[in-house]
Amino acid sequence: MALKYFANILFLPPMSLDIGELAALAQAKTQLASVWVLNYYHTHSTYELARDLIILSYVLGWLTNILRLTYAYGLWRSIKNLYRYTAKRFYKKTLELPFLKKKVASEVDHAKHELEKSLIVKAKTSFNEVPEFGLTEKEVFQKLEDLNNIAAANWKGGKLSGAVYHGGDELIDLQSKAYHKFAVANQLHPDAFPGVRQMEAEVVSMVLKLFNAPSTGCGTTTSGGTESLLLACLAAREKARHERGLSEFEIIAPKTVHAAIFKAALYFKMKLHLVDLDENYIGNITQVKRLINRNTCLLIGSAPNFPHGLVDNIEELSKLAVKHNIPLHVDCCLGSFVIAYYEKAFQSSLKPFDFRLPGVTSISCDTHKYGFAPKGSSIIMYRSNEYRKYQYFVSTEWVGGLYGSPTLAGSRPGALTVGAWATMVYMGDDGYTRACQDIILTARRLRQTVDEEIPELEIIGDPQLSVVSFKSSKLNIHKLGDRLGKDGWHLSALQDPPALHLAVTKLTVPAIDRLLEDLKVAVKEVSLEDNTTTSDTAQLYGVANSLQTGSVADKLITCFLDTLYKTEPST
Ligand SMILES: *Cc1c(COP(=O)(O)O)cnc(C)c1O
């Protein structure tokens, strides 16, 4: 019966039917359907009806989801996604078969030993346990000297992408003294450290001004960009839960969004929809539009993103946010004070990205990047307390007393906020404007030289800020990265597409000529090598990107993390 009914619906009527005949056919079909439903109703028990309704709503839910995603990503991309997803799971299972599992384990074990060899580089000094008798101050500093002298990536020479954003002796000195003054401060106890409370409020206020927050603007300090992003997602989720009664939460963000958003989605059980890039390598707005639905509780754009240093189309995202009344977070963790001072430094404006756009409801800014504050310092800002209040943790029931905490941590190192405050008032508008000019001009030189003098490399998109990324269709870019490593340069490796990037810092400014020379030489050398030779990074990314071996890369990353906590290499 059911089969006949569906067959009737599915098969198209012959073309020759006129309107009257079509109407009759439609009526017949409707009749058939109602007969079928009534029939079903009378021949099944209440239990069966309830069961089938639940199954039906489940299936319909799934179907709607599939249709929605296919609509958003397009048919071709959806099929590709499905294929990649199934193939990955299939190969992951295959690698767990007994005979392959052993082989994988031995490969991973080999990689582990290599990792340990390169990471566990020890000084003469070593304490695996608390020493029985305390050392004298002089001895402690001798040990610290030993530990500081281990050969490492040369950040002082500006050879490291990002990582250390300032590194000037004067500032390090200032920060250490500021830390010293407030070494025991804890923001959990504002009564004991009122000065720290004031400085924290002022740091947030200063940064709000830089991002053109309205008078209702507010925020908190955090331990870093990751915590700022976690809080932005948490606040959006709690807002949607309380105000819209949602129980499922979806985030929409370009695929170039920082990994901390993946982390937030995992920690807070939110679903993250990754948007493909358009021809300019920024988030495809049409896809964002199509992915928005009633569970969407946050849109995200980056200004700029980490991989390519490109600014998403925040104006369009803002329009969508306003239209659908959804919060929009702009990740300026990396943009930091470089994007904030751009207008002052160059007397020309970027496309709007901050609170001046009405849809932008929160912004994260890492003061420990281009704000040059000590590491462990970032700001999460909101348009008003109607957003911020949802990141707070409040408990009135704890046996330990009434408890409230504004961020993820409980106790917080007040001295770090003091370090940020001291740095900002020491630098001033003038200091930051000059730093912005130096950094941006250096990034432009890198971009221009690659564009004009190194035809083997291709700049990704139109980077306006401090990060420049490039790929190549002529040589293996990760091999190039490893080759530059021999000259001491540490550029970041990217994937999809394979590329390298450099985040220019104050330390890169005096080193840029040297980098450009070394880059040209390295490109020539790698181009001449034949394609069969490979390198560590090229191999690693090869493993990670292959459907067959992708799951092995997970294991390698876990090994890497394990190694961080080893005092001795494994035997
Ligand atoms: C650095 C960065 C972050 C946060 O990183 P942390 O290491 O946690 O400070 C977030 N977004 C972007 C774009 C970044 O570059």
TrEMBL record:
Its EC number is 4.1.2.27. The modification N6-(pyridoxal phosphate)lysine is found at residue 369. It is an enzyme of class 4 (lyase). Pathway: Sphingolipid metabolism; Lipid metabolism; sphingolipid metabolism. One of its GO terms (biological process) is sphingolipid catabolic process. This is sphinganine-1-phosphate aldolase. One of its GO terms (molecular function) is pyridoxal phosphate binding. Its cofactor is pyridoxal 5'-phosphate.
